Amino acid sequence: MVDSILSETKDHMQKSIESMKKEFLTLRTGKVTTTIVDDIKVDYYGNPTPLNQVGSVTVMDATTIAISPWEKNLLPEIEKAIQQANIGVNPNNDGDFIKLFFPPMTSEQRVEIVKQAKAISEKAKVAVRNVRKDGNNKIKRLEKEKDISEDESKSAQESVQKLTDEHTIKIDEALKSKEADILKV
User: Do 94 and 153 have their domain in common?
Assistant: First the structure.
């Protein structure tokens, strides 16, 4: 019973880290990536559809993304969706495809993006601490219902704390790596 609680707690903590890493991908670093446009939805015949499902999204060089729609009549819709997404660039439509030219980041922009990364990592730490609280509450409930002894409860709670510490370290390491990526010129 305690093992299943520990396993569930570990899984939830791992999902918090995966979620944080996924959010990190939306942050801009020195080189552009297609993940910058992943959250953009295009009005495709009345349905909001992810940009990468209505066309090909490729990185041409360190500062340029090209979007080639499957259907040419979608160019104005894609252009409108990019402008509404407010990703910091204006789309250049040449009639066949759209190019996004990202200017090199200033040091102020880099510092601002690092702040965003820190906020994302803090959110992940809060999620991990909430998972710890849930796990400990389940363990305490088992002890209260006399399903486990006080010593087993104490040991299980120590295991939950150990998991929390491990996952907090992983979050800090991921943040440090992302921060280095962002600040690299």
Answer: no
Boundaries of domain holding 45: 34-101
Domain count, the chain: 2
Query: Do the Cβ atoms of 13 and 135 come closer than 8 Å?
Result: no
- Let me know the angle formed at the C-alpha of 55 by 49 and 60, rounded to the nearest 5 degrees: 130
Distance CA 13, CA 125 (A): 9
Is the pTM here over 0.70, yes or no?
Answer: yes
Q: Do 175 and 111 sit in the same domain of this protein? A: yes
C-alpha pair distances (Å), 143 with each of 113, 150, 161? 45, 6, 17
Query: pLDDT tens, 37-60?
Result: 888 999 888 889 998 899 999 998
Buried b vs exposed e over 21-39: b needs ≥16 C-beta within 10 Å?
Answer: bebbeebbbeebebebbee
Same domain, 129 and 116: yes
Our CA dihedral for 117, 120, 125, 126, rounded to 10 degrees, sits at: 150
Q: What is the CATH number of the domain that holds 125?
A: 1.10.132.20
